[in-house]
Each structure stands twice: as structure tokens, then as C-alpha cells.
Amino acid sequence: MADAASRLKSLVEQLLGVPLPVRIRAWDGSTAGPPDAPALVVRNRRAVRRLLWKPGELGLARAWVAGDLEIEGDLYVALDLMSTLVWERGEDARSLVQMLRDPRARAAVRGLVKVAGVPLPPAPPREEVRRSRTRLHTRWSDRRAISHHYDVGNDFYEIVLGPSMVYSCAYWEDGGTLESAQRDKLELVCRKLGLTSGQRLLDVGCGWGSMAIHAAREYGVSVVGITLSQEQASYARKRVADAGLTDLVEIRVQDYRDVADGPYDAISSIGMAEHVGSERYLEYAEDLYRLLKPGGRLLNHQIARRPQRDESAYDLDEFIDAYVFPDGELAPLGTTVTQLERAGFEVRDVESIREHYALTLRRWVADLEADWRRGLALAGPGRARVWRLYMAACAVAFERNRIGVNQVLAVRTPESGESGLPLRARTWGTG
Length: 431
Prior knowledge:
This protein is of the alpha/beta class. It is built from 17 helices and eleven strands. The longest helix is centred in the last third of the chain and has 19 residues, at about 380-400.
């Protein structure tokens, strides 16, 4: 086909009813669109077939993961330009049937079918996880989901996360490094929890052990860290041993629902609650409440989505669910606070650090891109492309306030009403 790019651009704009904000570079070498904009490189006709059979975010993701689509130019600028189409207009393009209700859209689809060739649905990339809608957040399904995301390989995560090996939002100041920003985040959590020597801390979703090591080394607390990832646990145990902290830190492969050796003086849950699920969240909050002693504190660090007018219509992010965090769910901040209070907690402080996560994600992407060849060798091309796209897209989502991240400090306030918190907010300590 001569000048496939112009044909694609015209048909897609006819289908969507708006101009494309990016250039198109097609498999025949032709280009069309704004000359100074990043280019969406359509490497083959299969990419078009993927989008026809699954319009919107998931079709784009499948084509990206398979290598059928690429971005030429600034990835963040391209994602920002395309975000309105993917996040807003894409809601109306969930299925081919919906598009075919409009006569102009039907004509555009017929044209795209001619461009794409034989209209058979391509198989999804092997990295895609098929989601079971019937039994979510059982112990088995949660282990499977956590293994998919975290057992990519510790060497791969070392590339992305750097020496801190902390896989959650850092706490930045101007001119700081990723390592110092992650140390500052761990220190902030410890201060909010009011940790003192001799206390017991439960770190739920302990990852590669960074929070447990920091709390034990800097505050002299006894820490139990739990994770469902075997690879994380092995790595964390070695770090604990290398730090000479085996007398203070225990790393377990354990579900939070199975922890039975409370009470603890404090609980940290950093970037874990997104995996719990809306149906299980109250149970999660009640379990943590049960594990705390009266006066104990919980620091819940969690990503939140913006609330919708009709919450019953909320659906999971298709790309994230299929390729990144299977069965993961984001809740509005108000929902999280309500569930913690229903479990018995007194919520004492909420701090939004949304912009900090955008900065963190951009640094992770830069780290991966800087060692891209090794990342490909360690994780495979498809998985490496998943991580690059999801981290860059999430950075844009945080920057545009589509999602946020919050630290919620809650207390199991005793019957006396003495919370143990300082009179002046955010001085922390023990009051």
C-alpha cells in the first residue's frame, strides 16, 4: 500500500472524530501528521488488526508489548498527547460492536480492515495474564498475582530501582538522588510510626527488605517482614544477613491473613494495599487492627484513583490488569479512610505525595533505559517493554492527577482515648 501512514491517519481520525495529536510512521516508510510531534510507529499490519479487535487501551498495549508499535521521539510527550484519546475517548471504544453503530465509524472500520488485511484476531502476547473474574483475592490467586509481578527477577529490579531496592514512591527534595529520596521516605514512615528501640514492627508487603532493615538498623526495633514472593524473600534475607541484623529482622513468605503472633507496636504497609481488592479491604483493615496493641500505629502508604460519579461503573485498567498487576484495584482515598475507620482505627493524618511518585517513576524509567540491553536479556523483550510503558504511563497519570498516592496514619486508640500522638501535627515522635 502506497502512503499507508496518510491512509491510517485519515481513517483513525474519521473513526475518532478528532485530529491525531501524533505523527504516524507506517511499515512502508511513509509518515503523516504534525511534523514536530512524536511518531507512533506502526511496524506492521498486525498492529492495526490488534486495534480493530480490541479498540482502546488494551489493543494499544498488546501491539506495544508484541513490538508491533513503537514510539519515535519523547515517550512522555507522546503518552501525554495520546492520553486524552486513550483515557477519555477510549471509554467509548471498548468494542468493535459499539463503534459500528455510527455510519461514519463503520466506513472507517471497513477502510481499516482493508489496510489491515485478513481480519483475524492476533493472539495476545504471552506476557498477558488471563484474569479469572470468579475467585478474586483468594490466597492462591494473590500468590499467583504477586509472583507474576515481583518474580520477574531480582537482577532486573536492581536495574530499575537502584541500590535502595524500594519499589514505592520516594520522598524527594530538590537536587536529591533516588537513593536519598527513598531513604527519606523510609525515615518519614518510621517517624510517623513513632518507632523506639525494643518495639515490634510488622512490615506488610516487605518487598526486598528495605523498610525492615532501615527500621531495625536506625531505630533498634524487632521487625517481621512478610511477602508472598519467594524471590523477594530470598533476596531480603540475604540483605538482612549482610547487614548483620538477623537477630532483629525475620522475613517470612506469608499472607497477611495468616499472621497470628501479634500484638505489634506498629505496622507499616507500603505499596501493598493496592493488591488487596475492594471485596477484601475491610478484612485487611480488621486483620491489621487485630494485630496492633492498643495505642499502636498503622502507616498505610497506598495509590488512590480519582472517585467517579457512578462508582458501580468503575472497571479496572485493562493494560495494568492484563500485564502488570493482575487483580490489583485502586480505590479513592475517601473509601480507604472509611474502611480503616470501619475496622476501628482512628485516622489521624493523611499526606498526599502525588508529585513525588511522578518523579520516582521517571527515574525508574531512566534507569531501565540506561541499561536497556541488559534489561532485555534479563526479563525478555515483551516484559521489558511492559515495564517501560507502564512506568512512563503512570508517571503521566500522576502528573495529570488521574491517580495519587497517600500516606494514611491510623491509630488503634485505646478506650482511654490517649492516642500517644503529639499535640502538634507532623512533629511525630511519641507525644
